[in-house]
Design goal:
With 485 residues, the protein is mainly alpha-helical. The chain has 19 helices and no strands. It is globular and about 80 Å long. 45% of the residues are buried.
């Protein structure tokens, strides 16, 4: 009887866990669809309306969104405690104020009101996308890949409907979608955000755990700029009245890839997806050069396929990196989206510049496309040969809390012996002793009255001399749990 009751309780618990996971998957999928859809509404619906008041509005608002993400990344890295209060309410206020001011600016035909409103709204939209990334950190890698691929395909298919809706309906959707996005994912994101903001600042933790934190100039972020440049170029290439064309046939490769992810039992391979994205993108740029005539639909379909696959890749990599090291998640998501925004702005303006020659000198378009292809090939040959998205994700070490046990009786002697054996300088020996006691970079900086960069440099030298990579490995070495290299 007792065994039957226990089995029943276990089965009930398992069903509850599965039910919660299914709810998380559904919420993340829905939020991702809305995020991808919102970016299309921004470019298809909102920006063309802004242009009627002033074409500078879209540039100002796009720059404001990117700048806000950069500021958010810097704050999250150095002073995350500043974000503990009113983060969600701040995003909601930004979305509400932005929507009201944007509508007022359009109604009054006021450039100043519209520019402020569009900028505030874009900031809210950008931050809402980051919150969705935080919520998706709770998914395992296989499910994450399926959700992102299916969500992008679904959002791309939804674009078919927008031209048939009144412009007022599209504008209403543009204003409402970010609120729906937050409603879907806020309950999932809040506990993860509390965990992120309760940890030490990533800047301090990166000093003693460098393998857990990506620098701002990491190849991942540089690649985001370059390939989001292609996305921006694709948005504006051959646009009519500054409204992007909709390459319908790009649904085929995007749908095929979503189906592959759905039936595959293996996690998404970011490097294979990157190669596919490159092939489609280069093919799209080569069409004008090879054909020598205006084949904008063919080129746009190929480019949209390539950029769509890269969008899936980008979101997967950023969320996967964030999940590997939760304390640094907000930095990775905000900085990654900021670099993507920067690339989009540059690409969109180049595409718009190329459009000026579209009906005048098509040879110019072919030349620009060939130059972009040449630049991409150079970039890939120069940087991608020894770089792997998959390896980058795997090599990020989780920032686990330090677990020093009771100090051995000969603690001081062991520290002195290790210091002498590995040739630590006097200052390095002093810092090594504090690290061995479990002290973090902030404590060392204040204790020794030295700069952050000085501590970082000394810690780097100490790790290299001792042959360790993390603070925990150093402590284990002193406590005799790790052999001396």
């Amino acid at each position: 009887m007792a065994h039957t009751i226990a089995s029943s309780d276990a089965a009930r618990t398992l069903r509850n866990i599965e039910g919660k996971q299914a709810k998380r998957i559904a919420s993340c999928f829905g939020a991702l669809v809305l995020v991808f859809t919102e970016y299309w509404l921004l470019n298809y619906c909102a920006f063309p309306l802004f242009d009627a008041v002033s074409p500078w509005t879209r540039e100002i608002s796009a720059a404001a969104g990117g700048l806000a993400l950069i500021v958010m990344a810097l704050v999250a890295r150095w002073k995350p405690g500043m974000l503990k209060k009113r983060l969600f309410s701040g995003i909601l206020a930004s979305l509400a104020a932005g929507a009201i001011l944007t509508l007022a600016g359009l109604y009054l035909n006021s450039f100043l009101t519209l520019a402020i409103g569009a900028s505030v709204a874009t900031i809210g939209i950008s931050l809402a996308a980051v919150i969705v990334g935080v919520a998706c950190m709770g998914l395992d890698l296989r499910v994450l890949g399926v959700c992102i691929a299916l969500a992008y395909f679904a959002s791309y298919a939804l674009r078919i409907a927008f031209p048939y809706l009144p412009i007022e309906a599209n504008l209403l959707l543009f204003a409402a979608v970010p609120f729906l996005t937050l409603a879907l994912c806020s309950s999932l994101a809040r506990p993860i955000l509390r965990q992120i903001l309760a940890a030490d600042s990533p800047a301090d933790a990166a000093v003693t755990s460098p393998a857990s934190y990506l620098p701002f100039v990491h190849q991942v972020f540089i690649t985001l700029i370059i390939f989001r440049f292609i996305y921006g170029y694709t948005l504006t290439f051959a646009e009519t009245d500054r409204v992007p064309i909709f390459p319908l046939l790009a649904l085929i490769p995007l749908g095929v890839y979503a189906l592959i992810r759905l039936v595959s039992k293996r996690p998404l391979d970011p490097d294979a997806l990157f190669r596919a994205s490159i092939l489609f993108s280069i093919a799209g740029f080569l069409v004008p050069s090879i054909a020598g005539t205006q084949n904008d639909l063919i080129a746009s379909n190929l480019l949209s396929s390539g950029t769509g696959l890269f969008e899936i890749l980008m979101y997967f990599v950023l969320v996967a990196l964030s999940a590997k090291n939760t304390p640094n998640a907000l930095v990775v998501l905000t900085w990654g989206n900021a670099m993507a925004s920067l690339g989009t702005i540059i690409g969109a303006n180049l595409g718009r510049l190329a459009n000026q020659y579209y009906h005048v000198d098509y040879g110019m378009i072919a030349t620009v496309s060939a130059c972009i292809v040449f630049g991409l090939v150079i970039y890939i040959l120069a940087t991608q040969r020894n770089f792997s998205f998959g390896d980058t994700i795997r090599k990020v070490e989780p920032a686990a809390p330090l677990a020093p046990s009771e100090r051995p009786a000969d603690f001081e002697q062991r520290c002195r012996m290790l210091s002498e054996t590995h040739g630590l300088t006097a200052r390095e020996d002093e810092i090594f002793g504090l690290l061995a006691q479990g002290r973090n970079a902030r404590f060392i900086q204040e204790k020794l009255v030295v700069s952050y960069n000085t501590v970082k440099t000394h810690v780097s030298h100490i790790y290299a001399k001792l042959g360790v990579h993390t603070h925990q490995e150093l402590i284990d070495l002193v406590e005799g749990k790790r052999e001396t290299p």
